Amino acid sequence: MQEYFHGRNKSEITIKSCFSWTLTEESNTSGMAMLVVDIPSGYIILQPDANKIVRNRAVPEMRDADVTKPGKTIWYFDHIPAERRCFDHTVRRYYPVANLTRTRQVIRKGEREMMG
């Protein structure tokens, strides 16, 4: 999985997801499968956009998508083949989220006495 940040203030992330079935000594393909992709807070993909990815059949085995779970996109497949498959989807920041980076507050001389 690779992420490409772009747009103004990194407001869009294009996520490239690649996968393949590796247990070929047991079976040539998997059974039904789902891929759950975690996305950052405040970012979403709209259901019509996800449906378009499914309809475009970039991954022929892809059958459905669910974007209703906060912080996740879920992709459903009939099976996963042994051949590597990849697809891209773009999530956009629709809700602002505070930057939770630690900061230090500067208190100027004189303000400390006023604070108590």
What would you say this structure looks like, in words?
This protein is mainly β. It has a single domain, classed as Sandwich (Immunoglobulin-like). It is built from 2 helices and 7 strands; from the N terminus they run ββββαβββα. The chain is elongated, with a radius of gyration of 21 Å. The relative contact order is 0.26.
Task: Draw up the topology in text.
Layout (H helix, E strand, L loop, with lengths): L1 E5 L5 E8 L13 E6 L4 E2 L2 H10 L5 E5 L5 E6 L7 E9 L17 H5 L1
Antiparallel strand pairs: 1-2, 2-7, 3-6, 4-7, 5-6
Give me some keywords for this one:
13% helix; 35% strand; 116 residues; mainly beta
Q: What is the global morphology?
A: elongated
Largest sheet composition? 4 strands, antiparallel
CATH class, please? Mainly Beta
- The N- and C-terminal alpha carbons lie at a distance of 52 Å
Which class of secondary structure composition applies to the elements? mainly beta
What is the oligomer described by this structure? Answer: single chain
Radius of gyration from CA coordinates: 21 Å
The strand order across the widest sheet is 1-2-7-4
The CATH topology annotation reads as: Immunoglobulin-like
Structure annotation, total helices: 2
Strand-residue proportion: 35-45%
Order of helices and strands: EEEEHEEEH
- Quantity of strands, as a count: 7
Residues in helix, %: 10-25%
Mean pLDDT: 87
